[in-house]
Amino acid sequence: MSDPLPAKGERLTHGLLYRRIPNVGGRWDPGCGLPLKYAFTPATDRETGVKETGISTYLVRLTTVEEVLEGHNLHFGVVVLDIAEIHRAVAELRTKMGTGKTKVAPFGEFSITFEPSDNPKDGAARHAHCWMNPTPGAVQKELVRLTSPSRVAKPCGPLQQKTGSVDP
Fold this sequence. Notes:
It is built from 3 helices and 8 strands, in the order ββββαβαββαβ.
């Protein structure tokens, strides 16, 4: 039996997420075929210039790689992240904070929530949109650590020069 559809705003504790990765330097390592830390960096709003605190992802069981990529550069990549693994990694980070074992700055309450959109400008996968927040540098590094070649749903194509476009 499959899981029921989560309610809007519901915190997710298990399942898989897609994360779209731009094919620009600093986001993707073509040598190893995996994302880099900046693939998980929050975007800056084009209109306001305000940097977001989290990142967009998409619930795998509700969408496809094709929907996640629709309307984006055909050379973008997609990786799969395991929600339970992310929560375990963040919990481990928290146990290291302030112990001298790592230089992890304190950050707010971490969550992954189901945040679907009805707005067509949000793309074909908007019905499966999730929000991971916050994603400071230490969490970004953990997301890189949790990826592997088997978690690459679609590799990035040739790297492009950064065009100033906002991260997906």
